[in-house]
Amino acid sequence: MRHSAPKKELLPNPVIYFQRLEKLCAERGYLLDKSVRTGDGLHPLYKIILNPSSRRTYCFAAGIHGNEISGPWAILNFLLGYKARPGDPRIILLPVLNPHGFLSNKRLNQNRINLNRRFFRRPLLAARRQIAKLFRGEAIDFFLSLHEDDEKKGYYLYRYGAHEHIFQQIIDWLKARSSVCLSARIYADRAAGGIVHHPRSDGSLEEWVYRRGKAAQSACLEVPDAQLFNHRTRLVSKMLSFMVSQSADLLR
Ligand SMILES: [Zn+2]
């Protein structure tokens, strides 16, 4: 979790983010769906689909906490460098799930709501219902939500799903290139080797997609903002590329 504003680094302008994303999708003919909007209707919730006819599906999501900005930029970086290869999975990108927060560099939405909680509450709040709509009719093999942590110095994962291999491969990849949080306790949860294997229920999106059967496996990656913005953004985008290139193994 991230509570503070990012450190004063030279950070990119969030307004140009959406311009770049749209331009890239238009140039490459990527399927960009903007039909679902935020609860107040003011912003589209971008959903990009790559390789629409592939059998297995990844979903990479980010920006549900608006000030955790490396996730959205890592997804854009990933997309910039992406060249489809035979065997690549279908890839759903949900790069900015809290556009209000992203544009104003705030964790919460414009109504000061933490969007990444209470997904099991009924009735579902409009702002969360709109996010839930993005998953209608989807059968995702692996869902990954990108977050940032301003306390821990290393990467770690919250894991939802029985397929331990995929979580371990991601952590091993990160460990070989950066630092992983190896504490036996991460906040209120027990952890081992950088993975919270049995997270407490918190009503988060990553928990909801798993428990509602939208995703067979699901994870939340916490990215340490102790690392400089450019560094962690580049590393996470490379990790996404790694996941795509190894999908036959990771989704086996
Ligand atoms: Zn977060």
Describe, in plain words, how this protein is organized in 3D.
The chain has 252 residues and is α/β, with parallel strands linked by helices. The protein has a single domain (14-250), classed as Zn peptidases (Aminopeptidase, 3-Layer(aba) Sandwich). It contains eight helices and ten strands. The chain has helices spanning 14-28, 70-81, 99-104, 126-133, 164-175, 205-211, 229-245, 247-250, and strands at 31-33, 47-50, 57-62, 90-94, 140-149, 156-160, 185-186, 189-190, 195-196, 215-224. Strands 1-2-4-3-5-10-6-9 form an eight-stranded mixed sheet, with helices on both faces. The longest helix has 17 residues, at 229-245. The radius of gyration is 17 Å and the shape is globular. 47% of the residues are buried. The model has no long low-confidence stretch (mean pLDDT 96). The site of zinc ion has 5 residues, from loops.
Bound ligands, named by name, code or SMILES? zinc ion
- What would you report as the Rg, rounded to the nearest angstrom? 17 Å
List the secondary-structure elements in sequence, H or E: HEEEHEHHEEHEEEHEHH
**In CATH terms, what is the architecture?**
3-Layer(aba) Sandwich
Beta strand % = 15-25%
Shape summary = globular
Strand order of the largest sheet: 1-2-4-3-5-10-6-9
Q: CATH topology, which one?
A: Aminopeptidase
Helix content: 25-40%
How many distinct domains? 1
Number of helices: 8
- Quickly give the structural class: alpha/beta
Largest sheet: 8 strands, mixed
Number of strands: 10
CATH superfamily label? Zn peptidases
Mean pLDDT: 96
Name of the top-level CATH class:
Alpha Beta
